[in-house]
From TrEMBL:
Name of the featured protein: Uncharacterized protein
CDD domains attached to this UniProt entry: CdiI_EC536-like
Alphabetical list of InterPro entries matching this protein: CdiI
Domain of life assignment: Bacteria
């Protein structure tokens, strides 16, 4: 993903760590919504993963992986504000996506409000 080869995960790695290691070897175009949600939630490969995640969210803002409706949006919204200042075009795109959303779950509404206040 970032031309940064990770060694194999340790034998006692958690399922999350082992999965993240495996997903970093998968071509970005083959990542599922769940794959992107997991990696973005771990702050892995954000410069490479946020653009395709925003493409998904543009078509379906409440796209979901394996957790709940809107889990990809939650993962994207809850990244550190620094990512949006280093990639302002991505921040503008996310603002367009979330600015007209309504009827969101309360936790998503809070994150949308927090993001829009940045």
């Amino acid at each position: 993903m970032e031309n940064d080869r990770w060694p194999a995960p340790p034998a006692d790695a958690t399922r999350l760590i082992a999965t993240a290691h495996a997903l970093r070897r998968k071509p970005i175009g083959e990542l599922t919504v769940e794959d992107m949600r997991l990696l973005i939630g771990q702050n892995e490969g954000l410069p490479h993963l946020l653009p395709p995640a925003l493409e998904v969210l543009r078509l379906d803002p409440t796209a979901e992986g394996h957790t709940y409706e809107g889990d990809l949006l939650y993962a994207v919204l809850t990244r550190s504000p620094e990512i949006w200042s280093t990639s302002p075009e991505l921040g503008r795109e996310l603002r367009l996506i979330v600015s007209d959303l309504s009827d969101l779950a309360p936790h998503l509404e809070r994150e949308v409000e927090r993001f829009l206040a940045l």
